[in-house]
UniProtKB/TrEMBL annotation:
SUPFAM superfamilies: MFS general substrate transporter. Pfam families: MFS_1. One of its GO terms (cellular component) is membrane. It comes from the Bacteria. This is DHA2 family multidrug resistance protein-like MFS transporter. The keyword Transmembrane applies. Residues 19-456 form the Major facilitator superfamily (MFS) profile domain. Signal peptide: none annotated. It is found in: Membrane. The chain crosses the membrane at residues 21-44, 56-76, 88-106, 118-135, 147-167, 173-193, 205-226, 232-249, 270-295, 307-325, 332-351, 400-421, 427-448.
Length: 458
């Protein structure tokens, strides 16, 4: 790779293909493993002798560390370089996977899963920044679409891979599977990932601590409310989280390169793109988490039938990915993302209006329609976020892309738990109504972008 390629507008030819393969495999590790652990959770709970309410920390530990660590690691990525951060994340993920496999108690497994979440955060904090280095700006949307495709594939094949492994081997082999995949991703990265310009910015450990307290307190406190655990501990967690976030924002205002990118959120195009993505992922989780309850509780489908009927969602995302990448380089994010979330909203309404005894085709085409719409959201919206940020703040923008997804998924999961706990049998249909409402809200926000100072959204 020449110095001109490293410093210029993306890579060309085979160099671009090899570098993107390394990024894709690393991203696949984190998304696939999240799906594997979800499917295996009942089996793991039985084997380590814990109940389902405690076993959820196998999932929560990963997600919580992932959300909290993304922005600090994005800041470190500017100092260390995107390549080094991603490669470190892959190695941490591999080591943590081995620790997961040998864990025999819930505290051991939860701690190892938290370490996995840290490794995944290293990867996700800079993966969009790496894509901006790998792809020329004229086709940047194609690279972002390919990244969205990889995430969708991880979600789509996760349940199938988990079922296949568990049919022939115990659950630790789900984590051992990450070892050869991770080592392959690391070797590909060593051979192909480009170096990024490095900043001499000082890492703000106090800001990172405030961010961890703030997000951690608000997320854990919010989760306790969603599960009807309203007590002094819940109030204390929310209070600590709120105070820490206020202190963090006050500290970051006026900083040249803040850890919490208030400078980027001060750019209207960036802030609206972040909100569009965040609300879009809340909408998707209203659907993804509640739909199995609807299929099994309202429509009497078996668990196997439920898994197959939800498959059109990721399959539709995969099918639209190749051409949405090309469209996002030509069509304004304002219109393309708005169209996608409007279509997704129509799909959610169609699911909400299903008759009492629908056949499988009635269900599948509606889920596929919603998935196709959601597939139009991320490539143009993420491209808009990256291009709204100055090039020297690419790591911060990359981190915020991941934060929009992870925080939207987390808040969505809390809201679903709250609705299902309060609305009982009507909960799944109410969740679909809320999925449609938030999808249309995301679409409306996207359409507001041409009204920003400067006119047409990129």
């Amino acid at each position: 790779m020449s110095q001109a390629q490293q410093a210029g507008d993306g890579l060309e030819g085979a160099a671009r293909g090899r570098a993107m393969a390394a990024v894709s495999l690393a991203v696949m590790l984190s998304t696939l493993d999240y799906a594997l652990a979800n499917v295996a959770l009942p089996t793991i709970a039985r084997d380590i002798h814990t109940d389902s309410s405690n076993a959820i920390w196998v999932i929560n530990a990963y997600q919580l560390v992932n959300v909290v660590a993304v922005l600090p690691l994005a800041a470190l990525g500017e100092r260390w370089g995107y390549r080094r951060m991603a490669q470190t994340g892959v190695l941490v993920f591999v080591v943590a996977s081995v620790l997961c496999a040998v864990s025999r108690t819930l505290p051991q497994l939860a701690a190892a899963r938290g370490l996995q979440g840290l490794g995944a955060s290293c990867i996700l904090s800079v993966n969009a920044g790496l894509i901006r280095l790998i792809y020329p700006q004229r086709i940047l949307g194609q690279g972002i679409a390919r990244n969205a495709l990889v995430i969708a594939l991880g979600v789509a094949i996760g349940p199938t891979v988990a079922a296949g492994v568990l049919s022939v081997a115990p659950w630790p082999y789900l984590f051992y599977l990450n070892v050869p995949l991770g080592l392959l991703a690391w070797l590909l990265g060593q051979a192909s990932l480009p170096d990024s310009p490095r900043s001499d910015r000082r890492f703000d450990a106090r800001a990172a601590g405030l961010l961890a307290l703030g997000l951690g307190g608000l997320i854990v406190g919010g989760d306790r409310i969603a599960h009807a655990r309203v007590d002094a501990l819940t109030a204390g967690l929310l209070g600590v989280g709120l105070v820490a976030m206020v202190g963090l924002v006050r500290r970051e205002l006026g900083q040249e390169r803040p850890l919490l990118p208030v400078d980027l959120l001060g750019i209207p195009a960036f802030a609206i793109a972040f909100a569009v993505g965040f609300i879009g992922f809340i909408a998707s989780n209203f659907f993804i988490i509640s739909m199995p309850f609807a299929l099994e509780g309202l429509f009497a489908r078996t668990p196997v039938e439920t898994g197959l009927l939800i498959t059109p969602w990721p399959v539709a995302i995969v099918l639209v990915a190749p051409w949405v990448g090309r469209l996002s380089d030509r069509v304004s994010a304002a219109w393309l993302s708005a169209l996608g979330m409007a279509v997704a909203g129509v799909g959610f309404i169609a699911l909400r209006l299903l008759p009492a005894h629908p056949d499988n085709l009635d269900i599948a085409w509606r889920i596929g329609l919603a998935g196709a719409g959601f597939g139009l959201l991320q490539p143009p919206n993420n491209r808009a976020m990256l291009l709204a940020a100055p090039r020297e703040r690419t790591a911060g923008a990359s981190g915020m892309i991941s934060v929009a997804r992870l925080l939207g998924q987390t808040v969505g999961a809390m809201l679903v738990a709250l609705v299902l706990a309060r609305a009982a049998a009507a909960g799944p249909r109410l969740c679909l109504t809320l999925a449609a409402a938030t999808a249309f809200l995301s679409a409306g926000l996207s359409l507001s972008r041409p009204l920003l100072p400067g006119g047409r959204s990129r």
